[in-house]
Amino acid sequence: MREKILSYIETNSRIDMHDLAIMMGTDEATIMNELEEMEQAHIICGYHTLINWEKAGIEKVTAMIEVRVTPQRGMGFDKVAERIYNYPEVNSVYLISGGFDFMVTLEGKTLREVSEFVSDKLSPLDSVLSTKTNFILKKYKDHGTIMAEQRKDERELVSL
Predict the structure, then answer these.
(1) Which of 14, 83, 122, 142 has the most C-beta neighbours closer than 10 Å?
(2) What CA dihedral angle connects 128, 92, 96 and 118, to 10 degrees?
(3) H/E/C letters for each residue in 124-159?
(4) Same structural domain for residues 92 and 133?
(5) Residues in domain Transcription regulator AsnC/Lrp ligand binding (predicted)?
(6) Do 23 and 97 contact (CB within 8 A), yes or no?
(7) Quick check: is 45 in a domain?
(8) What is the crossing angle of helices 17-24 and 28-40, to 10°?
(9) 112 and 36 share a domain?
(10) Which run of H or of E encompasses 113?
């Protein structure tokens, strides 16, 4: 039951508890108890709203920064990740495979603001060997949601 509840709320966290209970074939109290248990166990870590800032007319710059580090003795990558994710500007930190160790995402008002974070706060950390900043130019799909306007096919149908 947990997996089904999680699947439903992952795509629509605003789903009505009554509707979810009907879909799950149970009562609202059971659903509420399951959700509360999963929140307490940090299975559910938060509820977020996906916003198309471009359509809202609000300028934001999103960057994905690849970071190569030297892991700390006895702590591995965890201690370095903790130092990075504790900056309020940072949205996410992922340990990744490939040529870099971490993928860090953050948002700022301008390219300069993001660049200054990287040069003034991230790069000077003792464990950081190198960074590579990638700016997102346009979002087409985010968290499973299509963000780009889908073009309508305006061609006329011709049949022979």
Answers:
(1) 122
(2) -30
(3) CCCCEEEEEEEECCCCCEECCEECCCCCCCCCCCCC
(4) yes
(5) 65-138
(6) no
(7) no
(8) 100
(9) no
(10) helix 111-117
Q: How many domains are there within the chain?
A: 2
Token digits of residue 142: 């985010």
pLDDT reading at 139 higher than 80:
yes
3-state SS class at 95: strand
Mean pLDDT of the chain: 91
Buried (b) or exposed (e) across 108-135, using 16+ Cβ within 10 A?
beeeeebeebbeeebeeeebbeebebee
CB atoms within 10 A of CB 63: 21
Same domain, residue pair 58 and 35: no
Which pLDDT band holds residue 146 (cuts at 50, 70, 90)? Answer: confident
Domain extent for 112: 53-142
Q: Which residue has the higher pLDDT, 157 or 100?
A: 100
Q: What is the pLDDT of residues 32-45, one digit of tens each?
A: 999 999 999 999 99
- Sequence letter at residue 11: T
Quick one: which H or E segment has residue 64? strand 61-69
8 in a structural domain = yes
122 domain-assigned: yes
